[in-house]
Amino acid sequence: MADPSVAWSQRLREVVSAEGLVDYAALRGDPAALRDFVGWAAEHGPETERWRGTDDNRRLAFSLNALTAVTLWSVLEGVPRDPAAGRPPFARLRFALDGDVVRYDRFVAHQVLARIEEPLAVAALPCAALSCPPVSDRLFEKKDIDDALALRMRRWVASGRLVTDTGAGFTFSPALRPWLAAFARYDAAETPCAAVAPYALQPLRARLEGPCTYAWGPWDGTLDAVANGAHDRER
User: Fold this and answer.
1) 40 found inside a domain
2) How many domains, the chain?
């Protein structure tokens, strides 16, 4: 099978809104590009194609694109969502990837975070729930992965779904919590305020850089779907 990335990239732009929400109805109406990409990623990748082991940016882009596609495909296929509170709906999903069968949460832990050591990857992992980051309408590429991840983190902050200023402190999405140790280890960010502040606009950034009194918000498992088929395509 030829690499279907170009077709899936175009379809992704058509079904993801400016707010990073997904038009699942439209995607379900024409799922061919997504289906082809998921099928291709199941049989191709760093291991099956023997990529150079040091090419981490290429590996990371492949992994994030595949995880996003599998998440959207799981919604279309009606895969049962994990009922456990505080856990992404498909965290324990098993799926075919790169010639193997992997479990979502373990793949993220071992192949995305532990291997590549990039905590900003959390901002590029939608999970079909509003507690998670907005979906990217563009595939990630090796050439600009660092800039793309910083943009995803800024978009997550700007969405209002990552951090809320309560006046007495801050409430953070629980989706960030498992990544705090990584931010502390690799970015020297010891609190969620320190992890998020570089990606916030003023005046929120200045407040995050001050005393950090915070709490973790409740898990919002609401599907990250657009309200209807029409949405703003401006960027």
Assistant:
1) yes
2) 1
